[in-house]
TrEMBL record:
One of its GO terms (biological process) is proteolysis. This is LexA repressor DNA-binding domain-containing protein. It comes from the Bacteria. It comes from Candidatus Wolfebacteria bacterium RIFOXYD1_FULL_48_65. Residues 1-52 form the LexA repressor DNA-binding domain. One of its GO terms (molecular function) is serine-type endopeptidase activity. InterPro entries: ArsR-like_HTH, LexA_DNA-bd_dom, WH-like_DNA-bd_sf, WH_DNA-bd_sf. Gene3D superfamilies: Winged helix-like DNA-binding domain superfamily/Winged helix DNA-binding domain.
């Protein structure tokens, strides 16, 4: 087990079996990349050290079944078509927001829903703090912009 993984386990235990956002973990363990945090958490899970049940983040195919199975919690989400992001949302209830925005009657802002529904997916991160949601949404928008993807 690496030093970073031990630190993540300490954070997990101190938080009563829950993990804060990847950005917060990165800050606490002194790394700059949330991908590094994701890697270490995945290694801990695979090796049986970490069992956090329902993940506060993830990626799933976007279907009515998936949306209805989601917890009605606050967070940030990115809708992708053929693995390319086209919408970033921040909500106090991700499930409700997705249903109203993506599955709702007015589909005109999202032609991908009509054209390629089988290629839609959603990446999400459950975040309670409104300011952290705003920070993550801004970060993602800027990140995609640097990659030439304007959302």
């Amino acid at each position: 087990m690496t030093k970073a993984q031990k630190q993540i386990l300490d954070i997990f235990e101190k938080n009563g079996g829950a993990l804060p956002s990847f950005r917060e973990i990165a800050r606490q363990i002194g790394v700059s990349s949330t991908n590094t945090v994701s890697y270490h958490i995945e290694r801990l899970r695979k090796n049986g050290y970490l069992d956090i049940g329902r993940s506060p983040q993830g990626m799933a195919n976007l279907s009515l079944k998936t949306i209805l199975a989601m917890d009605a919690k606050p967070g940030v989400y990115v809708v992708l078509c053929a693995n390319k992001p086209f919408y970033i949302g921040s909500s106090t209830n991700i499930r409700k927001d997705i249903i109203e925005t993506i599955i709702g009657v007015d589909r005109s802002p999202f032609p991908q829903v009509v054209d390629k529904p089988d290629e839609l997916s959603i990446a999400y991160h459950i975040i309670e703090s409104e300011s952290e949601r705003a920070d993550l949404k801004q970060y993602l928008t800027e990140f995609y912009r640097t990659k030439g993807i304007d959302i």
